[in-house]
Amino acid sequence: MTRWEESAHRVREGLHRRIVGLDDVIEKALICILTRNHALLVGVPGLAKTLLISSLAEVLDLSFARIQFTPDLMPTDITGTEVLAEDREAGGRTFRFLPGPIFKNIILADEINRTPPKTQSALLEAMEERQVTSVGKRYPLPDPFFVLATQNPIDMEGTYPLPVAQLDRFMFRIRIEYPAEQVEHRIARRTSGRAAGAPLTPVLTAGDITDFVAEMAAVTMPPALRERIVAFVRQTRPEEPGAPEFIRDWIAFGASPRAAQALGVAARARALLHGRTTVTDDDVVALAPDIVRHRLVLNYHAVAEGLHAVDVVRQLMADHFGADGHSRTRPHASHS
């Protein structure tokens, strides 16, 4: 077992002291953090989204802050603000910057779609630039810095759709489904136990994340696979020559080049976590739906027919990677 295989195994073991199942979600969240990216977790309340993120911060020995997004949340509530303070040495008063909760390594942006665009723009600067601007001054955020956001797909009243530009900054949009019956029985049995509240032992540190990024650069991707990834992403765009008929019928705007970049980086990370130094089709197939679907904008006809972006992604994957055993017929409506 390689160093990173063992580390991933120990992270899962640690998290399983509090969380039952969710191995696929854990792996994608770990890939996101180890590659210095952000993730959006979507699911109904009670599926351990918040617990997963806070527990990840513990096993990775990183500072953590939870920000509850609400309609009245202002940008300064998360970024910080200038305050008038007494300067006892020089005498008189002076303004100084009081950092907000965003100045931590891992930020849980809870119910991110409940806050207005002005606050979203402040978060977008932090996600993309790793900095906060206040009264014309720039303040760098801690390194490493990650936003792991949650979104409730049920309550839509009082919510604000996330801007496409912000969605594009999330490497993954991970949907967490209801647990299987056996898993839910295990969850119910654990509820009265003491293990869930026990502190977790750190497995990785910020320095290990730097090492991982350096080693990931040595993971190779076959040129033919890289070409298929680029072709796969390009064919999500209805104006692309040779795009399939169902893409032209259902998609208004396809994925940006950032999708191909994210898929290549994430596939390398997954290969390394599985003890390999070469990316395979399996890595791409395992990650592509959660990397590409939130970057697609469906047109009116697709929405009217109840189609979801993940249907389009899986159909296109079948064409390029032979994945999931889908036929090459038009995608069908299903829950995404």
Radius of gyration, rounded?
A: 21 Å
Based on secondary structure, the structural category is alpha/beta
The second-level CATH architecture of the largest domain is 3-Layer(aba) Sandwich
Total number of beta strands: 11
Top-tier CATH class of the largest domain: Alpha Beta
Average pLDDT value? 86
Could you say which overall geometry the principal axes of the C-alpha atoms support? Answer: globular
Query: Looking at CATH, which topology of the largest domain would you report?
Result: Rossmann fold
**CATH fourth-tier homologous superfamily of the largest domain:** P-loop containing nucleotide triphosphate hydrolases
Unreliable residue runs: 325-336
Ends apart, CA distance between termini: 35 Å
The total count of helices amounts to 14
Residues in helix, %: 40-55%
Beta strand %: 15-25%
With strands numbered from the N-terminus, the spatial order across the biggest sheet is 2-5-8-1-9
Topology order in helix (H) and strand (E) letters: HHEHEHEEEHEEEHEHHHHEHHEHH
- Major sheet attributes: 5 strands, parallel
Overall tally of domains: 2
Question: Can you lay out the helices and strands and say which pair or pack?
Answer:
Layout: H1 3-15, H2 23-34, E1 38-42, H3 49-59, E2 64-68, H4 75-79, E3 80-86, E4 93-99, E5 106-110, H5 117-129, E6 131-134, E7 137-140, E8 146-151, H6 164-167, E9 170-175, H7 181-190, H8 206-216, H9 223-234, H10 245-250, E10 251-253, H11 257-273, H12 281-292, E11 297-298, H13 300-304, H14 309-321
Helix pairs in contact: 2-11, 8-11, 9-11, 9-14, 11-12, 12-14
